[in-house]
Amino acid sequence: MRAELLYKIADIINSNSTKYRAVIPRVRRQYMTQQGNSLVKSTCLVLNIMVTYRPKNHIHRSMWNIYENDIDRIIKKIARRDKAFAQRIDDNEPTLFDIEMIVRRASFQALKLKLVTTSYDIYLENS
Predict the structure, then answer these.
(1) pTM beyond 0.85
(2) Would you put residue 20 in left (φ > 0), alpha (ψ -120 to 50) or beta?
(3) CA 94 to chain CA mean position, Å
(4) Nearest one of 110, 11, 6 to 62, comparing CA atoms
(5) Contact partners, residue 106, CB within 8 Å, separation at least 6
(6) Residues with Cβ within 8 Å of residue 89, at least 6 apart in sequence
(7) In 3-state terms, what secondary structure has residue 50?
(8) Structure confidence by residue, pLDDT tens digits, 68-118
């Protein structure tokens, strides 16, 4: 995954969401992966998404770390089925719905940004 795409995702989240704020730390996150019978040290960038105007709370989550490798895995899965999505990612121009879908799937359905107002959301507002 290109770092430019990760920074573009953070910029789009920051410009279109009033509830969430995205930050990419300059330092890469280190972790251990298993290759064969040994552990190997690996690094990757992290997308930190936090709830704005809410202090840290140990009961309700207010911060999510989404790893670059998880985002890359989700992008590859979606790009196999959707060629238009793959072209938008290659051009570094993802839509709001693309970013919302990537973040939702990379966070295992835990984080729903609601950058795009869907017809279902409009229906719930009117009910």
Answers:
(1) no
(2) beta
(3) 12
(4) 110
(5) 66, 67, 70, 71, 73, 74
(6) 5, 75, 79, 98
(7) strand
(8) 999 999 999 999 999 999 999 999 999 999 999 999 999 999 898 988 877
